[in-house]
Amino acid sequence: MGRCGRAAPACPRPAHSDLRLPATGPTFKAAPPPDPCVEPLVLPPLPGRPQVRVVEVLATGGSGGAQEHLYSLLSRLDRSRFEPSVVLLSPGPTTRKIARLGVFVLVLDEPDDATAVGALAAYMAGIRPDVIHNHMYRAELVGTRAATGLAEVGLPRPYVVSTVHSSRVRSAEDRAQLRLLTPKMDQLIAVGRPNRSPGGADLQRSRP
After folding, report:
1. Are strands 104-107 and 131-135 parallel, antiparallel or unpaired?
2. How far apart are CA 68 and CA 92, in angstroms?
3. Which residues form the domain of 158?
């Protein structure tokens, strides 16, 4: 304080200073490198239809868990958004059960896979589905081949979705077929964790 109660003048600040304060702004971590094992799928947009047209392909029309799964899916499907139809690769009681839901059912009773692929491709060429959804091993093979066959002749290829209802640990020939066709599928759905894990084994516990 000065004599008259006034505050003493502050010391003048230098016009220039060599003092450099460290930057205190936020720090950002570099983005991780891309995973070479994951390639994003580039898919065409769905057409502007009011409903998504879906073909459900089931390996057999018999009774079992996959059939009940599909029946439950169809019975709860929003028909204002989806237009489903079902293709069975063999006949059975599921045909009538699903038909009672008001869903069109086509039975392709063709034991030869190549003939079944051609018949399914012809059906899809007529209705132009947006999605094909395969259930069980034989449906994965026939449905995926039929979808890729459409693209090979210049027709729109539907999105390929496959639900794995049981273990994919099969014969060497079956595994070779799955290894060839799985990259052509756009989405795999596993109904349980054992199906999602390779061979149904917990890799964390099995690791040496």
Report:
1. unpaired
2. 13
3. 52-195
